[in-house]
Design goal:
Blueprint (H helix, E strand, L loop, with lengths): L2 H12 L2 H12 L4 E4 L5 E4 L1 H7 L3 H4 L13 H12 L3 E7 L10 E9 L2 E11 L1 H29 L1 H15 L4 H22 L13 E3 L1 H14 L6 E5 L7 E3 L1 H19 L7 E8 L4 E2 L8 E2 L2 E7 L6 H4 L17 H11 L3 E7 L2 E8 L17
Parallel strand pairs: 7-9
Antiparallel strand pairs: 1-2, 1-5, 3-4, 4-5, 6-8, 9-12, 10-11, 12-14, 13-14
């Protein structure tokens, strides 16, 4: 065993101040850090490693790292390459998802030889989930802002000329022949159709801060599921997995119903009407450790309330995943591609964030929202103050 491994072992046995301080320091780091031995066995792992791999330190110590990662993982190749080159190596976006590790885990890995023993490898993993969440939240806010600006332009610069075109067509209708009347009516009908499309953007406009009132999120979800069961989702089995202890959400009840109804309707349409085994799971949970501080803000935002909408449909096409929340992105032949843009905007207005994970047979949308506090009436994240 190396000096580092011995030092941590002694710190467990004797409580040596220096070793104990080292152990506390490494255990305080939120990223998994492991010391891998000459035979790829785990010599040391910090607390974050135990949480990441879902097993205790006594089980990990002495066992090969390959027992805890997917077969033929690039992480194994990284360890081998660091040992061969005797130099640090970074590798990005390694997928460690497997039945052994719950959830989908994409990590950036850093490996370096131990200075005391070059055959031993110091390995650090950094999960990308949170970084991507922050990045996507910013992207969603930019997308919502762009649609808000577009809606203002459409309302002022397009609807006024359309009114003039329709008025002129109506005047012509009374003076032209019967054959030409069909053309004037076509102009009027197409003008009305364009106006309706423009009106669909109105909700994206800057309507000021969201009305913040304590909302029982389970009441919202119960109503959404009831609407779905009575209509578009009557052929689907709904599973409700709620944490009954969740506190209220500060927000607008009607807008939250709109958000989750949109997500459930999308899930239902993804499953289709021909399947008899369609399932949608609506779940809630409390995640106290999640807190975001975004650029341009003075205060951090705690997002402990998680709501998930999961379906067993075919999944989202890889070609549109990166731009799923942008305007006019849709997988439906008759869709406008505005539904998820609206969802992203309303969630952002409520100070929350939305993420998704999609694989064949399982697509899950996860929404994180703040909980009601004494200062929840502050509109830090509202659409009017973006």
């Amino acid at each position: 065993m190396s000096r580092i491994g011995q030092q941590f072992e002694k710190s467990n046995l004797t409580g040596m101040p220096t070793a104990l301080d080292d152990r506390r320091l490494i255990n305080a780091i939120p990223h998994p850090i492991l010391l891998i031995g000459e035979k790829d066995e785990v010599i040391f792992a910090n607390n974050a490693s135990e949480n990441f791999f879902g097993v205790g330190l006594p089980i990990m110590l002495g066992r090969p790292i390959h027992d805890f990662i997917p077969f033929a993982s690039p992480l194994s190749a990284l360890i081998t390459e660091v040992r061969r080159k005797r130099s640090p190596i970074n590798e990005y976006q390694i997928d460690l998802s497997s039945p052994k590790i719950s959830g989908r885990n994409i990590v950036d890995a850093y490996g370096a030889p131990n200075s005391d023993n070059g055959d031993e490898i110091i390995l650090m993993l950094q999960q990308r989930n949170m970084a991507q969440m922050i990045e996507r939240k910013l992207t969603h806010r930019h997308a919502a802002r762009s649609v808000s600006s577009m809606s203002a332009v459409l309302a002022h610069e397009i609807k006024n000329p359309l009114a003039g075109i329709k008025g002129a067509a109506q005047l012509l209708d009374s003076t032209v022949s019967q054959e030409d009347k069909n053309l004037t009516r076509l102009i009027s009908e197409e003008t009305d159709r364009i106006c309706k499309l423009v009106d669909s953007f109105a909700i994206f406009g800057d309507q000021g801060p969201v009305s913040r009132e304590p909302v029982n999120i389970h009441g919202v979800l119960n109503q959404v599921v009831e609407i779905a069961r009575a209509g578009f989702g009557s052929h689907i089995r709904f599973n409700e997995e709620y944490d009954p202890s969740l506190p209220p959400v500060p927000g607008d009840r009607d807008q939250l119903i709109q958000v989750f109804l949109n997500l459930v309707k999308n899930a239902s349409e993804a499953i289709g009407t021909e399947r008899t085994d369609g399932e949608i799971t609506v779940g809630t949970s409390f995640t106290p450790g999640i807190k975001l501080t975004l650029p341009g803000t003075q205060a951090g935002l705690s997002l402990p309330l998680m709501i998930s909408i999961c379906d067993n449909g075919p999944g989202i096409a890889k070609s549109i995943r990166e731009s799923l929340f942008e305007p006019f992105i849709s997988t439906k032949l008759s869709g406008t591609g505005l539904g998820l843009s609206l969802v992203a905007k309303l969630i952002s207005d409520h100070g929350g964030t939305i993420e998704f994970d999609s694989q064949p047979g399982k697509t899950s949308f996860e929404i994180l929202l703040p909980m009601q506090t004494s200062d929840s009436n502050l509109n830090i994240w509202s659409g009017g103050h973006s």
